[in-house]
Amino acid sequence: MSIHNELVRTEPELAAELYAPFPYDFRGENAPGTKPWYTMPIFNRQADRLFVRYIRPYIEAARRHDDAPRPSEAARAAMDRTNKGWEAAVAAIEMAHLARRLAAPEAAS
């Protein structure tokens, strides 16, 4: 949620892109006779709750279907910015874990 809030605060035009539908590949799990892809926004609000579904490999895989919509350049920029936010969050978690292990190696196993 912090990535969402940071985007809304600092780059609202990119955040808005992530509320639009994105194509997702079903990866062969679709029902017979249905499209092999579906659309869903990355960010979606329901009442006072924020729902996030961001699986970029599934979005990228949808390009193999000629009839699947393609994300706009702005939408791709928003996904790239989101990836940077995730990478920073993961790095922060890894650093916190490392600091904990260095401070008390026996407690961090």
Short structural description:
By secondary structure, this protein is an alpha+beta fold. It has helices at residues 2-10, 12-17, 56-61, 73-103, and strands at 21-25, 37-41, 43-46, 49-52. It contains four helices and four strands; from the N terminus they run ααββββαα.
* Rg result: 18 Å
Please mark out the parts with pLDDT under 50 across 5 or more consecutive residues, or reply none: none
**Approximately what portion of the residues adopt beta-strand conformation?**
15-25%
Distance between the first and last residues' Cα: 28 Å
The helix count comes to 4
Overall pLDDT confidence: 87
Number of strands: 4
| Helix and strand sequence | HHEEEEHH
Structural features, described:
The chain has helices spanning 2-10, 12-17, 56-61, 73-103, and strands spanning 21-25, 37-41, 43-46, 49-52. The protein has 109 residues and is an alpha+beta fold. The protein has one domain (2-107). The two termini are 28 Å apart. The model has no long low-confidence stretch (mean pLDDT 87).
Keywords:
109 residues, alpha+beta, two-stranded antiparallel ribbon, 4 helices, 17% strand
Topology, element by element:
Blueprint: H1 2-10, H2 12-17, E1 21-25, E2 37-41, E3 43-46, E4 49-52, H3 56-61, H4 73-103
Antiparallel strand pairs: 1-2, 3-4
